[in-house]
Design a protein that fits this description.
The strands form 5 sheets. Strands 4-3-5-6-7-8-9-14-13 form a 9-stranded mixed beta sheet. A 4-stranded antiparallel beta sheet has the order 10-11-12-15. A 4-stranded mixed beta sheet has the order 20-19-18-21. It has 12 helices and 21 strands. Helix 2 packs across helix 3 and helix 5 crosses helix 6 (139-151). It has 433 residues and is α/β, with parallel strands linked by helices. The protein has helices spanning 5-8, 12-33, 35-43, 65-70, 104-120, 139-151, 163-173, 182-194, 216-226, 340-347, 378-381, 385-403, and strands spanning 86-89, 99-102, 128-131, 154-156, 177-180, 206-209, 229-236, 241-247, 255-257, 262-267, 281-287, 298-304, 306-307, 319-320, 325-326, 331-333, 336-338, 353-364, 367-376, 408-412, 427-429. It starts with a helix and ends with a strand. Helix 6 (139-151) links the parallel strand 3 and strand 4.
């Protein structure tokens, strides 16, 4: 189902005309109301009136997470605080937290975009949406919540944690849509099995998963274990929260970016050069409808590709490839760029291992080392030691074939690797560089 038929299927020419109009208005407003942007525009010798076409966007300066931290907490807000009705913030685990604000209209826009997203995933008014994203300063829980209410569905605000209770609620309430991180979905499947509950027999029909990179193979695993369609959703609090883009259930081939609200670009993360459609690079977003916290060319650090080809679902907005990693999470091991999702794609192709792994990077002398810890499933772990050795060597070979680096694979017992109720930790980098 398409929630907003008119805007989600706009012909390209009309969509770009709308984007340009909104971009020009946004540039005028941030220049007039946010000293940070006035200074950045002046340093780049550009004025809002210089924007005559969408191509002129690339002349505007980038905004980075460091800029948000330098202006902590409210320095980039474009409206007086009495107009801000909601504040969210990042966890601050990698530095000072970043803070974002919303006006009443921003909240309505966000709910509208999440209603679009849920509809694209196949959710309808008669669904029970089991929302296991965290509520609070994190945008996931409340973003889904208000979108589900906008859609007219019944939202179950279970939040994260207390996994056995989650299974009971899903059984008793008849949850039909699950929203959480993909790794937590697999953990819920494990929990159900421990409880003697066949999760495949619940009423769940679709899961909407995001907040961490995941692979196509993990999608297959989730769909197999939960007997549902697994849909990828994308968003980040700086841009608005969940609802920036989502896959449609008809195709599951790329996430539709809601371009009437966000202008996407792909850049070379090293040079900042704008790359054409089809080339991999770092995602950059400019918000063109937000009031309280507009962003000009925000560097997300997420790695993706943009595709303009029409989708069979009928939506005309550009699609982005599933995020394969982050430019700042990318590991460089012996000169080779390595994303955790690449290792995951290898593991998901190997029979006998679970989709739970941990990468431990270290340095011995001047040489980087990579250890891949991966769980063997119950059946595999009961086999002979020599079979485990064969399995380990097979994984090492596949990693070598894909990435050209040597990794030491350590097979560990089932349920040894710590589970997460939010974003899974995949990497421990012990190097002191």
């Amino acid at each position: 189902m398409i929630w907003d038929e008119e805007l989600e299927t706009l012909p390209r020419e009309a969509l770009e005309a709308l984007q340009l109009k909104r971009l020009m208005a946004t540039a005028e407003r941030v220049y007039a109301t946010v000293p940070f942007y006035k200074k950045k525009f002046d340093e780049a010798s550009i004025r809002p009136g210089d924007i005559k076409s969408l191509k002129d966007l690339q002349h505007l300066p980038f905004t980075t997470k460091l800029d948000l931290r330098d202006n902590y907490p409210f320095g980039l807000f474009a409206v007086p605080m009495e107009q801000v009705v909601r504040i969210h913030a990042s966890s601050g685990t990698t530095g000072k937290q970043t803070v974002v604000g919303y006006t009443r209209r921003d909240i309505n826009t966000w709910a509208e975009l999440m209603a679009r997203s849920l509809a694209a995933a196949g959710a309808q008014k008669n669904d029970f949406i089991h929302n296991a994203y965290g509520y609070g300063l994190f945008t996931g829980g409340l973003g889904v919540h208000y979108g589900a209410e906008k859609l007219g569905a019944s939202v179950i605000p279970i939040s994260g944690g207390n996994s056995k209770r989650q299974i009971i609620i899903m059984q008793d309430f008849g949850s039909t849509v699950l929203t959480c991180t993909p790794s937590y979905a697999l953990f819920l499947a494990e929990t159900a099995e421990e409880m003697g509950v066949d999760i495949k027999k619940l009423k769940l029909k679709v899961g909407i998963f995001g907040a961490e990179p995941w692979s196509e193979k993990m999608r297959d695993e989730i769909e197999r274990q939960l007997n549902i369609d697994a849909i990828d959703i994308y968003g980040l609090s700086e841009v608005i929260g969940p609802g920036v883009s989502i896959e449609c259930i008809e195709a599951k081939r790329g996430l539709h970016i809601f371009e009437d609200h966000f202008i996407p670009e792909i850049i070379n993360p090293r040079t900042g050069e704008v790359l054409p459609y089809g080339e991999k690079g770092e995602l950059v977003f400019t918000t063109i409808t937000k009031e309280a916290f507009p962003l000009i060319r925000y560097r997300t650090r997420d790695i993706s590709v943009l595709y303009p080809q029409p989708c069979k679902c009928g939506r005309t907005h550009v699609r982005m490839e599933r995020v394969s990693g982050r430019s700042d999470d990318m590991l460089i091991i012996r000169g080779v760029n390595v994303f955790p999702s690449q290792i995951e794609s290898v593991l998901m192709n190997v029979e006998g291992v679970e989709p739970h792994y941990l990468l431990i990077v270290d340095r011995q002398g001047n040489l980087d080392t990579l250890e891949v810890q991966v769980e063997v499933n119950e059946k595999g772990f009961s086999d002979e030691v020599k079979d485990l050795q064969v399995l380990g060597r097979r994984i090492e070979k596949d990693i070598k074939d894909l990435l050209g680096i040597t990794a030491a694979v350590k097979l560990v017992e089932p349920k040894t690797i710590q589970r997460s109720e939010g974003k899974a930790q995949r990497v421990i980098d012990k190097r002191k560089i």
